[in-house]
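Changelog entry: the Protein kinase domain-containing protein record was regenerated in this release. Current contents:
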Amino acid sequence: MAVDYHTKSHIFGPGEGGVDRFIDEIITLTGINHQNMVKFLGCCLETEAPILVYELASNGTLLDYIHHTNGKRSLSWETLLKIASESAAGLNYLHSASIIHGNVKSSNVLLTDRFVAKVAGFGPPRLFPTNESQISTLLQRTLGYLDPEYLHKGQLTDKSDVYSFGMVLLEIVTGEKPISFGRPESQRIISSHFISSMELQSGLFHEIVWPQIVREGDREQVRAVAELAKRCLKLSSAERPTMEEVARELKRLSDSHQVQVGRPP
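Regenerated structure tokens:
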């Protein structure tokens, strides 16, 4: 199992009603049961720092494998595609229950010892940054994934999750972080650079794709995932697909790849 420790002010938030909101969130967490969602096991509020207990996913995060942190190696295209499909299935499960995740990013896709994807990062700890420093840190960690409409209107929707998941797909395809100040100014925001490269009828698309994927993956299949990411990243939420559509398309691509390599889907 995995244990999260948080201050009471972080979990309950400022003002009245924080405890009631927390209890409502715990009830919601308890009802979440899907093979691609990290399972909430329980909590203890009798300690100074409230303890939240979750199912353990022992193989790190998708971020670790894309960006080679914590000593992790690269994963095959087949495994990355499977992880993308499973993550989308978990998010679609949430949306089917009218639940918005609100914090979709590659570090919140956990992996089991068999590389089954488990979506995490959903629940009380994400609700209440309590000071300017925590708010600044939250923005730095999530800014590249945040829906532009949320930044403009201040309201999360299911399509906000779709946008964030599009950024995760982009990380998988390019091997790049959403924002990097180590890149030239025109390429610092990877989504803008990626979309402009896709729209040009030239070889730029394959130049921006992760070289490992170019070597391993079927080019049409990689292009299909990239096109799906592009649709998820539409500035207007009305033009983005639903998570159900995203999950269905990724499962189709993952299953077709399994057939190509001679394994049953």
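The domain at 58-260 is CATH 1.10.510.10 (Transferase(Phosphotransferase); domain 1).
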